[in-house]
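Predict structure. Chain length: 310.
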Amino acid sequence: MRGDFSENFRTDFRKSGRFGKQSVISVRCSGEGQLILIPPCYSKVGIGMPFFEREGIRFAYDEFGPAGAPVVVFSHGFLMDGDMFQSNIAELANEFRCVVWDQRGFGATGATTRAFSYWDSAQDLIALLDHLEVASASLVGMSQGGFISMRAALLEPDRFRAIALISTRSDVDSEAVQQSFEELKAEWARNGAKNVAQNLSAFLFGPEYAASVWIQKWMNAGSDHFEHPVNALVSRDDITPRLGEITHTSIVFHGRDDAAISPDCAEALAARLPNCKDLVLVDRAGHTPNLTHAEIVNPPLRDFLLRYAR
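Prediction complete.
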């Protein structure tokens, strides 16, 4: 990530309002493979959601689209959960079986009491596929979800077809940024999100996005929510030397105004992935372009998956 994180926390943020494109209707897969229209739900509590278990942890997930369609697994970013892909899945669920899951420490999976690495999270993703009895899938990973998706592809390369990477990188953060995350972890442990939620919103979404639902999610998270997820983030290893092993067809998306990860990282990532088909830089988008600018991201994402994920 780029810049002084604590400095970004001090950024003034005045935008308020409803959470983005809430009018989207999702498509859920029934047991008979039929499509069922369901209203969107943005306050994830785990009620009615399926779970799978690994290492004593119950992971929440959900799936949308035809049961027999090609599978695409969506992995969310840090501080997010599977809800961030609502608008993308609504665009894709007619043609793909879209699987979303909440990683350790986030969403309906909830806080974790044990240390973990993104290699562990990659194994969690693979365990989800095993649970669903899915032999082959494609991946969409945003930021932290990209860290996990690339590691899953390295662990079991024959398991995956195509990879879409959004706002992510293969290397590690500077020491200054790592220290800023440590400060954030300490603040969250003392006071929860109340002193940082507004500026986190501006940092992740930009000043024009109405992120009240996400702010409320952070406010509802306990003070113990953050320790192990931050530790996994700041201690991750550099997998840049192994990018040549990720020979899957890939595409890279990035916001031109991303304050968390520089667009330079996206350019470097796209250049080093052996079979990267395109780098899509989204004008006026910050760290979450698939959420804040779904209308721009969805068409090339859909075209990529239609061509390479089937």
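Summary: Residues 175-191 form the longest helix (17 residues).
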